[in-house]
Amino acid sequence: MARTRLYRHGVLESEDFPVDDVSEHLAEPDTTVWLDFCAPTAEDLAAIAEELGLHELAVEDALHRNERAKLERCDGYSELTAYSVSLDASGELVDCELSAFVTDQALVTVRKNENFDIDAVVSRWDADGDQAKSGVGFLLHGLLDYIVDGHFEAAQRMDEQIEELEDGVFDERPHHQQLQRRSLQLRKNLVRLRRAVLPMRELVNTLMRRDVGLVDEAMAPYFQDVYDHVLRASEWTESLRDLITTIRETQLNLQSFQLNMIMKKVTGWAAIIAVPTAITGFYGQNVPYPGFQSMWGFWASTAAILIISGALFATFRRKDWL
Predict the structure, then answer these.
(1) pTM for the full model?
(2) From 176's CA, which of 76, 132, 153, 258 has a CA 20 to 30 Å away?
């Protein structure tokens, strides 16, 4: 069922009335109507599309998923598409697509699923009821303010997750596989967040234009505040994107550094082990040599092994090769 509301002279007069009564309310002066559909069918939107004069392509866009965030001005109405985002318990970014049709007296919202908390938007409208005299501009501000605040909150939580990732990179014994998985998940979330945030700058900026006529003088400062939040969320998202790239590069550099240290130590020990191998190999010749078949030859080779190996060990430790 569609959710409906009627404002008259800036005062909430009724709600949850039948969709068939919308045409009667729109014919009355100083009225503003809001309708909300969740996962509707083409038949659900047919009546309101005919009432508001919506183009069939606009209705088709509202029914299909994965449309780009945009604001398109049509004859007699504007079509808006935006994405709300949030992070679930596992840290995965969850988005919900919202389409809206805006006229001088009506706002029609079409949610693709229940992930969009429309009750939170209604609560904002009720909390700022003094501004309801601005009509559709008031309703549109509450809707966009909720969406942009979600973008800002998601960016803040992802910033905290990146700080935790930074601490993990510089642990004494970092878990590289877990860090790689986490960094790739954050990068994927940032790409999806960026797709939702960046188009909002142009969207809100277009709504604030005088020729559009949806924002009156009373609501202009509030839309400017939303626009400022959009800019901050956009800049924050871009900085986080650069930061996660830097962390990934740092992680790879640290792994390369650790590998070089291991190879250096292994090479040093191999050089030390080569000394007794060379000496015992020399004394294993099948021709006479100094100390051949005598006890002092054995002690001489043993002393040579200990002295040369000890000297190499002390030299490598002093050069920090071991």
Answers:
(1) 0.77
(2) 153
